[in-house]
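Before relying on records like the one below, remember that each one covers exactly one chain. Contacts with other chains, cofactors or solvent are not represented anywhere in the record.
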Amino acid sequence: MSNFSLSRGLKTHVPLVRPKTTIGAAVFVALYGLPHGAGAQQAVSNQAQPETTQGVLAEVTVTASRREQTLESVPYSLSVVSGDELTRTGVTDLASLTAQVPGLSMYDVGARYSGSLFPVIRGINATAVSIGFHTLEQAPVGTYIDNSPIDGYLQLDDVQRVEVLRGPQGTLYGAGALGGALRIIPNAPVLNSLSGSLEASGGTLAHSSGASYTADAVLNVPIGETLAFRASGKYSHEPGFIDVYGLLDRTGSPFTGTPVLANPADPVDSPGIFSGKNDWNDQNAFTGRASLLWKPDDKFNAQLAYTYADVNGNSGPVVNTEFQGGPYPLDPRITFPPGGEYQFFTPIEQPFSRRTTLGSLDLSYDVGFATVSATSSYYTTDGDLLSDQTYIIYGLPSFVGYYAGNPVNPRFIWTQEFADSAHTFTQEVRLVSNTGPDKRFDYTLGVFYETQTREGSWDIANPGSPERSVAQGCTGPISYNFQTGMYSPFPNCLLVAGPDDVYYTQEDTQHFRDLSEFGEFTWHFARHAQITAGVRHFEQDFTDVQSYSDLVFGTVVPPEPRSSQASKNTWKINSSYEYATSQFVYALWSQGFRRGGANAIPLSGAIGESNPALLYYSPDSTNNYEVGIKGRLANGLTYTFAVFDIEWDNPQVAGQTPVGNFAVWNAKKAASRGVEFDLNTPLFVPELRLLLSAAYADAKFTENYLIPADMFGNISGLAGQQLPGSPKTSAAATLNYDRRLGSGYDLLLSLNDTYRSAVPLSTFPGILGSIPAAPGMNIVNLSAALTRQPWHLGIYVTNLMDKWAVQEPAGSTELTNGLANFTTINQPREIFLRLGYSF
């Protein structure tokens, strides 16, 4: 077998050979010394981080390019995390995965804000860390289960591997892969094999009186010779670790329920009834997947799959460390205790929920010269959450009277409800040539169609305050004199609200359609060298419809649709050279693209925008220039080193305008430049191996931009500002020790350390005048597992040192004596035991 076959993605592993050039020889010797006469032939596994055999790591096979290739032969930066590694390092979802993959980041606050957060790769994101309203722009990273796009929240369960494709992937993965793509590869049904597993775990969470627990099961059932069915399910409960105080007893729903009066005889001045709760911020999640495989022969394959995920809980990891205790600012008759590292204050419960589903059908048929594949998918996600801004509104004297009355209602609450949903259908058909050692040309051709509807709503209520103003005897509407700083006198103190005291409603509906054709063509112009060119052509339509109703200020904006269209080509060229067996150098230019859109915002009224340029935003695009070196040695050591420069044109920025409208606009230019490194190597002891990775991405605006807004201010950004949502530097190291103890027992120890530098959360100054940022943090995890088939028992510890780390600092120091100072933190140490049985 010639060495040429390995560079074509075949699974045959060949002995080491001498380098083909002087430069290749120098690199060869620098990497692993003088070449040996022959290397042992390695067995190939389709697992991402497979078991070791006598200290040798098996080869990793990936399908990121739509065909099977060895990890080292893929000519761009690609990280792979196996299902075993996810378990060892305590990864449960995409947010926790980001700590293990440098260069990949996501704001990790549990599932609460999964409708407005997305992964970021190489820092390609210009939107502030969003909380509340759903995402308006297209996410900068494409996320897939197998070949089907997905959005929403799900646990990573029964997963074979996760592939992290760094850098723009516009040709094969389309619009939205501006900074890269994530592929979750679940375990597929296996023919002629009855197998399964049952597993349960229980544990303790520091600073919590509750217990965490999970239960999951997998079953693979053969149905005759050509059919197989696989089902998996996982339920998990995470207890809260934050104690809350200041909850008001209320009647009715958490959103519109009216506070209960401590003295029913005094509807005007009666205090509320306050209480507290321990372990307030709990979370419950279920993820299930069922798939049916039909494989009547070696040429045809069909897999039908359905994934369902549901998550719910209360609040998030938010605390108040600055309130010193004392009188409640809204009602000095009530006294609050001081805050603390695991203490929070709020007058309302803040529940959240999200449901995500994905149905998909994958078909493939080998016609001899190529394989024809088709993927049909339909996914939905819908979520709802409550948020509270009572203390912040109370700290704004010129506004609070409109919602809390004059004098202020001692039982005033200001509740917000955010809801979102997305329904997406996609269809992709691909023709992928069958490769081989005698083939000089490879190609991938395809067409893709997507139609999507996304909806979001934002409602605000001040339950009980309008009724109190009636009980006061108010007859005229309240008003504020900015010259005197005084509200209108009695009886002009009447508050305005609609049914259930909901006074503000905003609804947004987006319709998006994408039709594209794509292709990649590879020429193996020499035995050990190739060049690939790719292109994708997009035709897109986008429509946005928003409506507003603000009864307090008498503003009603009826729905008015605005549309935009885009036609775009994205390109890719890469070349790679195998200078020694399984040792590659590569160079890459690739483009990414993201749809533009329209903002259906008003141009008149109390919340009207003065600049019509805000009605539309352009598509943005990235150009990635990358060089790297990748390889695999005879002992199974694999490595990647990449240097990249991404130039970003018209970066999309989403946020609220100075008036308060949600919108997307374009900055001018940004860039991300950096390096990435991955190493997976056995060490001096055969049972010991090290996984080490690091990334540096200097992502920032490279040109100033200014969008005139109105008298409340302009929208702007400055060259040199670091882009939000990701650190400049991140690293992860895992040390695994696998040892056979005898009598069928196997011991597996794992020590994991992750690091990230500071993360800016916006490009706009906060209340204090500075740009908020999360300081850097370092977290250590530890696990130990003992296996004697069919049983296994393990102990797992996340955040071993129980570090308290800030993920978002408090935004103010003066409002309500610090009661409105909310700090978002990480999860404390968790220790749990896991017992499993496999058959």
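The chain has one domain: 3-838.
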